[in-house]
Amino acid sequence: MLPPAPVTLQGAYVRLEPLGQEHVPGLAQATAGDEEVWRWLPAFPADEAELGVVVAAALAERERGQRFPFAILSADGSAVLGSSSYLDFDSGHPRIEIGWTWLSRPVWRSPVNTEAKLLLLGHAFDDLGYERVTLKTHHRNERSQAAIARLGAVREGTLRHHVRHRDGSWRDSVYFSILSAEWPQARDGLTARLAAQE
Q1: Which residues of the chain form beta strands (DSSP E)?
Q2: How far apart, in whole angstroms, are the C-alpha atoms of residue 93 and residue 166?
Q3: For strand 132-138 and strand 95-103, is the pairing parallel, antiparallel, or unpaired?
Q4: Shortest CA distance to 40 belongs to which of 175, 173, 198?
Q5: What is the DSSP letter of 79?
Q6: Which 3 state secondary structure label does DSSP give 150?
Q7: Can you say whether the dihedral through the CA atoms of 66, 167, 21, 99 is positive or negative?
Q8: What would the DSSP string read from start to end of 104-136?
Q9: What is the DSSP letter of 30?
Q10: Pick from 186, 105, 125, 112: which is nearest to 2 by CA?
């Protein structure tokens, strides 16, 4: 098992590269101020300056070894579409989480999220050697729960009153996971879904 390190993951639809401040203008243009994009996330950056604060916090967590954030770009790198991160990989156990994912609304229900998750899962299992990949979401975020289930992840349960949401309400966190033995079937399913979307 290896910790996440700087790497670029290239697909047919998206390219994932280590997140940096240079991605802030594109991320702001794609997602800042869109309540639908940020509804279930801990932050709501209304403009480029506030999105820069969100990115700076992610980069500080990377420096502390707590998170590894990626920018999600179009395959040719011409457009910034969103971000996703590896989390919870510093505990000494062969597990990792994929989270803090947000995407521009025009690419929802497109191959973008499917391929981004395929790349992140493949890197976690095949390159870094993790046994378990976790994904979690807000209990009221039914769209995200359905998307995670479509990845081939198993719904494990709910942690009640897990964290406070930014509006002060309690968030229950719905947990899913994929184990290394389940990865080949999940990978084949995601690959087939991408082929069907072409």
Answers
A1: 9-10, 14-18, 67-74, 80-87, 95-103, 132-138, 154-164, 170-179
A2: 30
A3: parallel
A4: 173
A5: -
A6: helix
A7: positive
A8: -GGGTTSHHHHHHHHHHHHIIIIIS--SEEEEE
A9: H
A10: 125
**Tokens read off for 69:** 């954030």
Rounded CA-CA distance 137/145 in Å is 7
**Which residue shows structure tokens 């700087």?**
6
- pLDDT at position 198 is 67
Largest separation between any pair of C-alpha atoms in the chain = 43
Tokens found for residue 123? 């890197």
pLDDT along the chain (198 residues), means of 10: 93 98 98 95 96 98 96 97 94 92 94 96 97 97 94 96 93 97 97 86
Going from the N-terminus, what domains does the chain have, and what CATH number goes with each? 9-197 (3.40.630.30)
Amino acid identity of residue 70, one-letter, is: F
